[in-house]
Write a structure and sequence with these properties.
444 residues; alpha+beta; 5-stranded antiparallel beta sheet; 14 helices; 11 strands; 24% helix; binds delta-meso nitroheme
């Protein structure tokens, strides 16, 4: 056995929300808190450390229900974490998401001055996330967390977002979501693509070797060990605009579905174009043993099946020949949908807020989340498509282009509107359970 396969993650110290795929269906809640008094903040850390579930015991009946807690850089400061420790966290985390707006494509309507307050401000210190298979169990899991902060002076809940699964685990545009997940060495939790070698644990959790043979450590080491960075983004989806674009650029409902699938790389059922390029196969889409079992390069180097510009091939080129090494840009995603469903067939915007609370989990905000968002989503140079952006989530601003490789000539789609707008977000750190207690015991 190689040194790598001997890596054992300290699951009893890692928060459950880090490694475990979210249940489907699900109910979820995000609560943001501000710490006005550092002693109260430390007391909060003490209380939540007893509420947060660890990633151990995957077979427990509570395995699908978890409460996680994460802190922003401002949150660490509000607790009085010493400067030397603060400086040992990644540069991007210390900057915060709002300061990284240009790099992330958060411009125009998506720019921080237009974000939903208090997102992106220095008021957000702690984010509590609860996820469960249904609203009843969610409430039961949340009750102790609420008791932990509601009775306290000096800590205040200032923002909340509820999320609720849409039918068939679809997201607001109508695609099945939550399919593709990386396997992580030593986690015991399988990935969804049997053809992808498990990634080194250090890609997702601090304190273990990563794909570059580095080990990220903080000062003191205990503070970062078994913790991870989490990026939350509230992303509004313009479902009516998406439907109208498909409708206006197709001659039949079949054409419309094919164009949607080419943009995503999967049919709305989840069935991948890589395995069924000409027609949908809902059974394949719903089958977790088959719906992510594919690579790109050998079978489809030019993208005749799955275009290089499609959302899933951009965000995970797998083995496709591109500039760079895809394995160092992987991520765990925990998207949950918010807002009402836009009824089938409706092409006019009803003014409702709906979209995805996107959550990234990984040990490297810079080379994982920011790289994918800036180089792969909002640029096309890496696979030879100039400045074309992701047709579904890119900051296209009404002037997006998308190329569909086709014989005898490619098809070029133009004037793509911006279907997704950022409503706000935060860079957070989700500490291990021992680190939460270390924070509770700070004496500064
Ligand atoms: Fe994406 N969508 O629902 O339309 N995404 N995504 N994403 N995304 C994926 O594989 C979506 C966003 C990735 O391994 C699927 O689970 C929407 C951001 C990655 O094959 C669907 C939004 C970033 C993958 C969506 C959104 C990513 C992926 C296919 C915003 C990173 C896995 C289902 C509102 C910066 C690729 C699945 C792989 C898949 C949707 C955002 C990344 C349906 C609506 C911001 C890495």
């Amino acid at each position: 056995m190689s040194e790598e396969t001997n890596v054992k993650l300290e699951l009893d110290d890692i928060q459950s929300g880090v490694l475990r795929p979210r249940p489907g269906p699900y109910a979820a809640t995000y609560i943001a808190l501000r710490i006005d008094d550092r002693r109260a903040g430390r007391e909060l850390m003490d209380r939540v450390s007893t509420v947060v579930t660890s990633a151990a015991n995957p077979s427990s009946p509570l395995a699908d229900t978890w409460v996680s807690v994460a802190l922003t850089y401002c949150g660490f400061k509000a607790l009085g974490v010493p400067q030397q420790s603060l400086d040992s966290f990644s540069w991007e985390f210390r900057q915060g998401m709002a300061a990284r707006a240009n790099e992330l494509g958060d411009v125009g309507e998506s720019s921080p001055e237009n974000w939903e307050k208090p997102l992106g401000t220095s008021d957000i210190h702690v984010v509590i996330v609860a996820v469960s298979p249904d609203a009843e169990r969610l409430e039961a899991a949340l009750a102790p967390a609420r008791r932990a902060y509601q009775s306290m002076n000096g800590v205040e809940a200032i923002w909340r977002q509820n999320c609720q699964a849409l039918p068939d685990d679809k997201e607001p545009f109508g695609f099945r979501d939550g399919i593709s997940h990386p396997a992580i060495e030593g986690s015991g939790i399988p990935g969804s693509n049997p053809q992808e070698q498990p990634l080194k644990a250090g890609e997702f959790v601090l304190g273990y070797p990563d794909e570059m043979r580095g080990i990220q450590k903080t000062e003191p080491e205990l503070l970062g060990r078994n913790g991870t960075y989490v990026v939350f983004r509230k992303l509004h989806q313009r479902v009516a605009d998406f439907r109208r674009y498909l409708n206006a650029n197709s001659n039949s409902p079949q054409d419309e579905e094919l164009l949607a699938a080419k943009m995503m790389g999967r049919w709305r059922s989840g069935a991948p174009l890589a395995l069924c390029p000409f027609h949908d196969d809902p059974q394949l889409g719903a089958d977790p043993r088959r719906n992510n079992d594919f690579l790109f390069e050998a079978d489809d180097p030019a993208g005749f099946k799955t275009p290089g510009g499609s959302h899933i091939r951009r965000t995970n080129p797998r083995d496709a020949a591109i500039a760079g090494f895809p394995r160092i840009h992987r991520m765990i995603r925990r998207g949950t949908a918010y807002g009402p469903l836009l009824p089938d067939g409706v092409l006019d915007d009803d003014g409702a807020e709906r979209g995805l609370m996107f959550a990234f989990v990984g040990a490297h905000i810079g080379r994982q989340f920011e790289f994918v968002q800036s180089q792969w989503v909002n640029d096309g140079v890496f696979f030879g498509a100039g400045d074309d952006k992701d047709p579904i989530i890119g900051s296209n601003g009404g002037a997006g282009n998308f190329t569909q490789p086709r014989k005898p000539v490619r098809r070029r789609w133009q004037g793509i509107p911006q279907f997704v707008a950022t409503r706000g977000g935060e860079y957070c750190f989700m500490p291990g359970l021992r680190a939460l207690r270390w924070l509770a015991e700070l004496q500064t």
